Every structure is written in structure tokens, then in C-alpha cells.
Amino acid sequence: MVKYCKTAKGHQEISERSGGLGLRARRLLILIDGQRDSEELGRLAGDSQVEETLRTLADAGFIEALAAPPPAVAAPAARSAPPPTAHSGRQASLGLAQDFMMNTLRTFHGPYGKLDLVKRIHATTHADELRTLFDEWLHSISETRIGRKRADELSARLLEVMPG
User: Fold this and answer.
1) Does the pLDDT of residue 69 top 80, yes or no?
2) How far is CA 140 from CA 4, 116, 126, in A?
3) How far apart are the C-alpha atoms of 111 and 145, rounded to whole Å?
4) DSSP code of 82?
5) Less crowded by CB within 10 Å, the N or C end of the chain?
6) Can you tell me the mean pLDDT for 33-60?
């Protein structure tokens, strides 16, 4: 499956809403992080026409497909321990967890809703700091009808990418 990342135009659209995107395309654009493939993006966005929406975003210059990673080369015998990975095989990372939390808040509350929480999430420098904001994040997500329905799924996905 193909993975996508936002272009400069895509980041600008997230912050300024200047491209006139519809709700479905905007939601998908927010979720694109370079880590998720199109199938996972479709599940998260609840978009049955994800390929069409991705094509529209790519044609408009908001996203671009990532090149496939080069094939792995056998490493010398002396290897360090691999970094911690999430249950899905995705590498756990503070940045991924922060992005996930901020993107879900923006998806459910708009770009200016819960701005204080988004700023505090963005300012964290350690996983322990980010974990202290988990309950507030979950409560905020659960304030919306769709958020209540997806709270368990979103919590599980966040914990997959949360380091430590």
C-alpha cells in the first residue's frame, strides 16, 4: 500500500483552510502523516472512497506519495537492539503520538477548538509528559458524538505509537 505525506501546500491548507476542501478531503488530509498507508487512512477517516480522495488531494498538490523504502541490506553481525515498536509494527515515537493527538483534536473540534490542549501536547518533550495529557485528550475526544463512538479505537491507536 502507498503511504503519503503532506506538501507545503497541504500544511498551509491545514492551518489556513484556503483551498476550499470538503469535509471528507480535509479530514483525510489531517490524518496523513507519512506513516499510515491508504488502507489505514481509509479506516481512520471512515472513507469508503479513500483512493479517490487521495488522488484528488495529490492532483491538487496537497499530498505526495512517498517513495518505497530501499530494500534492507544485511547488516554486520554487531547490531544494537532495535528501537521499541508498537504492536502494529510501527515504531513508537513521541512525535507520532503528539501528531496523532493533535490531529484527532483538530478533526473532532476544528483548528481552534481545544487550542490550549493542542499547544500543551505540542510543547511536551518526554513521553511521560504526554501521558499526563492522555485523560484530558480522551475526555476532549469523547465530547463529540463520533468521538464517543471511536474513543476506544483511537485510544488503542494512540497507545500503539506512544513510546515507553
Assistant:
1) no
2) 28, 12, 21
3) 18
4) P
5) N
6) 85
In DSSP terms, 37 is beta-bridged to 3
pLDDT tens track for 49-60: 888 888 888 898
Q: Which residues pair with 4 in a beta bridge?
A: 65
What integer best gives the mean pLDDT of the chain?
78
Q: Is 150 helix (H, G, I), strand (E, B) or coil?
A: helix
Q: Report the chain's terminal Cα–Cα distance, integer Å.
A: 28
Distance CA(157)–CA(49), nearest Å, equals 22
Where in 9-146 does DSSP place strands (E)? 63-65
Range in 45-49, 56-60, 140-144 with the lowest mean pLDDT: 45-49
Q: Check pLDDT > 60 for residue 80.
A: no
Three-state secondary structure call for residue 5: strand
* Amino acid occupying residue 72: A
SS3 state at 69: coil
